[in-house]
Amino acid sequence: MSHQTILVLDFGSQYTQLIARRLRELSIYSEILAPNTPAAEIGRRRPAGIILSGGPKSVSDPGAPRCDPSMFDLGLPVLGICYGMQLMADTLGGRVAPAAQREFGHATVSISGHAAGAALFAGVPDAIRVWASHGDCVAEAPPGFAVAATSANAPVAAMVDLTRGLYALLF
Prior knowledge:
- The protein contains four helices and nine strands, in the order E-H-E-H-E-E-H-E-H-E-E-E-E.
C-alpha cells in the first residue's frame, strides 16, 4: 500500500501532536521529526510536504531552534505555522520583529483577494476569526512571497510563494 507522508518538524509547539493527529484523521501518514533534521534526510524520506510547527521561542532568541535552510530548496511544499512562519520568513530574507502587542486568543484575519489569498483560503470568507498566540510578527515578507492575509496586529498574517510552494500562517 502506498501512502503520502507529511513530515512535521517540531519547534516545541503544544499543538505539534494535534497537527500530526489531524493529518492522520485525513488518512495522511505523518511523522514528527526534530527541527534540525538535515535536508538530506528529509529528501531521503520523499515526503509529499513538510509542516514547520509553532513553538514558544522567538527566532531572535539566542539558541532558538532552526531548521536546515536548504530544506526550502528541496522542491517540496512547506507550510509554516506561527513560529514556523516566522522562521521561514527570517531564513528566507524577510523581517521578523516584536509585535506591537502580544496576541493570545481570538483575532480577526482579513484575507487578500489576490492569488496569494486564494492559494491558502479558497472558499473562506474575506474575514475569519482565528486563534493567535505570538509575541513576534512578520513585519516584511521575504522576496518572492505575497501577503495572503493581515490582521490588526500583524501586517503579514499569512504569506505564500506560489512558485516555490511555500505557505505560512501566523495563527
